[in-house]
Write a structure and sequence with these properties.
Elements (H helix, E strand, L loop, with lengths): L5 E13 L5 E7 L7 E9 L6 H13 L13 E7 L5 E13 L12 H6 L2 E5 L1 H7 L3 E2 L4 H8 L8 E2 L3 E6 L3 E6 L2 E4 L1
Parallel strand pairs: 1-5, 3-7, 4-8
Antiparallel strand pairs: 1-3, 2-3, 2-6, 4-5, 9-10, 10-11
Helix pairs in contact: 3-4
Length: 188
């Protein structure tokens, strides 16, 4: 890692938003990291100072989807994932993500609450069936969710948050962009 690379430690609250037809809401991104690179992003983002995890999740839901939810309605944390990623060679992010699952009637998320960088990155919101989520799982950032989602849709809420396999990308000065998961480097 270059000496001048900034290291960021970040805790995030994420929400698997599921509609009445068992579809999960994910944001699709195309060309943001590099031309031709496509991936999905779960709803959520960083926990602000002074916020509880549930408060951060509720705020992110409102900002990213327009859905207003009381933090107490989110229920327990159902999963966690952690690892590193970067979207530029000058920074490296060490991130811990904690996931809630929230059921809601289907809706079309507005884009007016998104930050400028999110407007550039998140090309559209898509509701994916379980089969579509399983197919997309290798390119869902920051962790694979299909197995967790399958259990949640069957009514199984884990007593202890499930550990999800981390899958993200980072910039390696020797090889360029590299996809990493908790099992190691997967390739470019």
């Amino acid at each position: 890692m270059p000496r001048d690379r900034r290291v960021i430690r970040r805790k995030c609250a994420r929400v698997l938003v599921v509609d009445e037809d068992d579809r999960v809401l994910l944001f699709f991104s195309s060309g943001f990291v590099a031309p031709g690179v496509e991936y999905y992003v779960t709803v959520g983002g960083g926990v602000d100072p002074g916020e509880t995890l549930a408060e951060a999740a509720a705020r992110e839901l409102l900002e990213e989807t327009g859905l207003r939810v009381d933090p107490g309605e989110l229920g327990p944390v159902v999963a966690r994932a952690s690892g590193e990623w970067s979207d530029n060679p000058a920074e490296l992010v060490f991130q811990e993500d904690l996931y809630f699952c929230y059921r809601t009637p289907h809706f079309d998320p507005p884009r007016d609450g998104l930050e400028e960088v999110e407007l550039q990155e998140l090309t559209e919101a898509r509701w994916l069936t379980l089969d579509q989520a399983e197919e997309a799982d290798p390119v869902i950032f920051p962790a694979r969710i299909a197995d967790l989602l399958k259990g949640l849709l069957d009514g199984t809420v884990p007593e202890v948050p499930v550990r999800l396999p981390w899958r993200a990308w980072t910039f390696d000065p020797g090889s360029g962009w590299t996809v990493i998961d908790r099992f190691g480097i997967l390739g470019q």
